[in-house]
Each structure stands twice: as structure tokens, then as C-alpha cells.
């Protein structure tokens, strides 16, 4: 167990709907990153938050947004869902600010989102 | 373009045998390289992290090597077990906050 939890485990939505995914990081971990992993692919970086502020973003449109809270929890919100948004969404927490440091990232089990 | 390529894409071995997975990267500048194990439908779990100055690191039956000059890494699994069946992902970090993931090698260990 990594100490990082995510909810829900699975979720089914229809195209055009909105979804909120939740992550609870390890206590004391100030950085949380979100990833999208399509079937058979490696995770793709969505964005990163450090102490409640966005600190880096991958090539994802603005309809992907996030929040980080002082209690080490965070959310990933996706608006106007598209079929291609179907994927495993992973959050990962780490101690430091920069993932280019040698800090270990601890991943949650993921949320499997299916968009019909 | 910063890329991480892994080979083979998939691998089948018998329980008890050794195997080696490869990772080539073009990320520059380089900060560190990580190997993760990911069971189907689960989040990745860190196996090793190596910085520029390290050329080998072990974690139990897993040994990772790094050649920063040729930009290659390998993950060697000794005396494989059925529980080693998973995807193994190589991840490289440069001087930004992004981690660049390879697509993984899917390993299946049969009895």
C-alpha cells in the first residue's frame, strides 16, 4: 500500500457530462500530480499541484481542471466529457516541489473512467 | 523531442528464470530515471530511482542499471516469480516537473 487513495474505483459517464475524481495523498506530501493512462499506454501527465497551486501542466485542454486542499486531498474535474477521456486516472503524491528531484512518487490505485 | 522507449513490448518467461528489460531515452537534460511495476488495473509502484551519478541500484530481486552516456537503462529480474507478472514502466525526469513515461513492458511469468 502506498498510502494514497482514490475514489471512486470505477465510474461510467456519458458524453458531455462532467466528472470529479478524488485523491487523498500521504500526510505531509505537498505535491500531487494527476495522470491519464489509456489502455496499453504509459501514464500521461495532466497537471501538478504544490500547496494548493497549479505548478505545471501537460498537453490537456482547459476542461481538465483541478484543486488541491490543505488536508492533502485533491480533485480532478473534467467537463464536457468525450469518448477519448475513457482511461485510468492516477494521482501521485510526493514530498517535494519538483518531480525532477529524486523524491519517490506514490501512486494511488486509480479511477477507471468509462465514457459512453 | 523527449522520449522514453522500452523493449520488448511484451515478454513471457517461465517461473524461476531471469529476464532483462530495456529502456532508451532521449530526455535532456537528465535528472533521474525510475522503474515502476504496475499490476493490471492498479497504480504504479516504485522499484528504483537512479540519479545521474548512479549506475546500478537493487531492490530485492530487481536490479536496475543506468548508462547516462548512452542514455540506456535496464531492469534485471532474478529468479522470477508468478507475482512478477505485471507491466514495468521506465520513467525519466529532466529539469522540469514532468515525468516522461515509457509505454512499458508487459511481463508474464508462467509456472
Describe this structure in words.
The complex is a heterodimer of chains A (116) and B (111). By secondary structure, chain A is an all-beta fold. Chain A has no helices and 11 strands. Chain A has strands at residues 5-7, 10-13, 19-24, 31-37, 44-50, 53-57, 64-68, 73-78, 87-94, 106-107, 111-115. In chain A, the strands form 2 sheets. In chain A, strands 2, 4, 5, 6, 9, 10 and 11 form a 7-stranded mixed sheet that branches. In chain A, a hairpin with a 2-residue loop joins strand 5 and strand 6. The N and C termini of chain A lie far apart (31 Å). The mean pLDDT of chain A is 90. Chain B has 111 residues and is an all-beta fold. Helices cover 0% and strands 57% of the residues of chain B. Chain B is built from no helices and 11 strands. In chain B, strands 2, 4, 5, 9, 10 and 11 form a 6-stranded mixed sheet that branches. In chain B, strands 1-3-8-7-6 form a 5-stranded antiparallel sheet, with no helix packed on it. In chain B, a hairpin with a 5-residue loop joins strand 9 and strand 10. Chain B is globular and about 40 Å long. The relative contact order of chain B is 0.34. The mean pLDDT of chain B is 92. Chains A and B meet through strand 5, strand 9 and strand 10 of A and strand 4, strand 5 and strand 9 of B.
List strands and helices in order, with pairings:
The complex is a heterodimer of chains A (116) and B (111).
Chain A: E1 5-7, E2 10-13, E3 19-24, E4 31-37, E5 44-50, E6 53-57, E7 64-68, E8 73-78, E9 87-94, E10 106-107, E11 111-115
Parallel strand pairs in A: 2-11
Antiparallel strand pairs in A: 1-3, 3-8, 4-5, 4-9, 5-6, 7-8, 9-10, 9-11
Chain B: E1 4-7, E2 10-14, E3 19-25, E4 32-38, E5 45-51, E6 56-59, E7 62-67, E8 72-77, E9 86-93, E10 99-101, E11 105-110
Parallel strand pairs in B: 2-11
Antiparallel strand pairs in B: 1-3, 3-8, 4-5, 4-9, 6-7, 7-8, 9-10, 9-11
Amino acid at each position: 500500500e502506498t498510502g494514497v487513495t482514490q475514489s471512486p474505483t470505477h465510474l461510467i459517464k456519458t458524453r458531455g457530462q462532467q466528472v470529479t475524481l478524488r485523491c487523498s495523498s500521504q500526510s505531509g506530501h505537498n505535491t500531487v500530480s494527476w495522470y491519464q493512462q489509456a489502455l496499453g499506454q504509459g501514464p500521461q501527465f495532466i497537471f501538478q499541484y504544490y500547496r494548493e497551486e497549479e505548478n505545471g501542466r501537460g498537453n490537456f485542454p482547459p476542461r481538465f481542471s483541478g484543486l488541491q486542499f490543505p488536508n492533502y486531498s485533491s480533485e480532478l474535474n473534467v467537463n464536457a466529457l468525450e469518448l477519448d477521456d475513457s482511461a485510468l486516472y492516477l494521482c501521485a503524491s510526493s514530498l517535494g516541489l519538483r518531480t525532477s528531484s529524486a523524491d519517490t512518487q506514490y501512486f494511488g490505485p486509480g479511477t477507471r473512467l468509462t465514457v459512453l | 523531442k523527449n522520449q522514453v522507449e522500452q523493449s520488448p513490448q511484451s515478454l513471457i518467461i517461465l517461473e524461476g528464470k531471469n529476464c532483462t528489460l530495456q529502456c532508451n531515452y532521449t530526455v535532456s537534460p537528465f535528472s533521474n530515471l525510475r522503474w515502476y511495476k504496475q499490476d493490471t488495473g492498479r497504480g504504479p509502484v516504485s522499484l528504483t530511482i537512479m540519479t545521474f551519478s548512479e549506475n546500478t541500484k537493487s531492490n530485492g530481486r530487481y536490479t536496475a542499471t543506468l548508462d547516462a552516456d548512452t542514455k540506456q537503462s535496464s531492469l534485471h529480474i532474478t529468479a522470477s516469480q508468478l507475482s512478477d507478472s505485471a507491466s514495468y514502466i521506465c520513467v525519466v525526469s529532466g529539469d522540469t516537473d514532468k515525468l516522461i513515461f515509457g509505454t512499458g513492458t508487459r511481463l508474464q511469468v508462467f509456472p
